[in-house]
Amino acid sequence: MTAGGEERLQVERSGGFGGLTLSASVPLAALEPRERAAIEERLGRSPAPPSGPDRFVYRFRMRGREAVVQEDMVPPELQPLLDRLADSWR
Amino acid sequence: MGGCFCTIVPPHLFERIVRTGTPEQRDAALGTLSIDHSIRLMRAQNAALAAATARRAVAPVGGHGVVHRTIYDALHRNDQHATRHLRDEGQPPCPDTSANQAYDALGDTYRFYWEVLTRDSIDDAGMSLLGEVHFGRNYDNAFWDGQRMMFGDGSGTMFTGFTSAIEVVGHELTHGVTQSTINLLYTGQSGALNESISDVFGCLVKQYKLGQTADQATWLIGEGILGPAMHGVALRSMKAPGTAYDGDTQPATMASYVNTTSDNGGVHTNSGIPNHAFYLVATAIGGHAWERAGRIWYQVMSSRSVPQDAQFHTFAQATLVAASALYGAGSTEAKAVADAWGEVGVLSGSQLPTAAALAS
User: Fold this and answer.
1) Are B122 and B253 part of one and the same domain?
2) Across the interface, which of B138, B175, B222 has its CB nearest the CB of A53?
3) Which of B285, B353, B281 is nearest to B314 (CA)?
4) B158 close to A (CB below 8 A)
5) What's the average model confidence in pLDDT over B211-231?
6) How many domains does chain B have?
7) What is the CATH classification number for the domain harbouring B145?
């Protein structure tokens, strides 16, 4: 969860036609307040059923808790964060 | 008493075992009774299917067997209801390469389902095939949303697009066929079966178009769409799961089954196991895979002989029942199916119905 003492949000993107499981992370300090609120609101919730075949599935982890969000359930507040991560998936 | 029940045992005795036997005896007896019932049901369905096929053979041109395609432009938005038409049925090629590729591949997929399986589109009632290209921005994915097939352009680093690979288009359309037949739940083993069925028929669409035999085919999914960040030849290999690209984690057998909560329980990972089983069946039978191996798999779908939450072993038994109903219990085809599921570790000897049970 930390790198150099810095708390980070870990994001996993799995699924899709390719079925690739990829990860990215950002410092918690770099999140916009509304982004952080949207994630915190979802932490620990039971995951929604799959949206449909070949959709992406996102998993957000911070401070030992996680939220699983199906692609079509990503709230608008989190879309800019995913756009920022577009080139970071590894 | 083991799991093998011979068919000289009358049904009422099975029923008594179900009522009074040990749990193990009960399970074995129930399995045999259920297989016996399934075969009788499937034989009746086969007769009905043959009659329907005969009726369709004389259907007038302009009715069944005519594809209706529309390709829309998503204009790089996440818009699943795009309205801008790029190419409609019967129109000549447009200036958009992705649109033409999607149009052609949807036509090839329709033709496969109609000519090989006498299925009239996704719903077997001539449903229009709707595709959207340029979905999202740098979107590294293609998917079926229940009504339309969406194709991203790819980021250029991981994927270079999705419409150039005919098996990708066949895969997506097959999700629609699965939805309108056995509608397998998209999680865990039933989800992996859902994925595998799309890979199987995606591959068969390609093999049918190219006229390839099982030995000639590459059995690769997503050939030619990998970008420079991906090192490999494709996304999945049905012939050798786990070898398509560096980092491919697909198992070929149950011994390597991956337990994970990612990807809805590894639906694109564990699909390697039923994928490989199909490959083994097709190569054991030989010739064109769509003629017999594909027919057996499709029979399970069209006769809706598995529940939505079917696990691998349930689906495997259903393919064995289908092979026996179509080609005979002692046939090369039924043996190929039993051997394949045995080889990938899904069915062990005691779970296989006896030839006598299948012939009853």
Assistant:
1) no
2) B175
3) B353
4) yes
5) 97
6) 2
7) 3.10.170.10
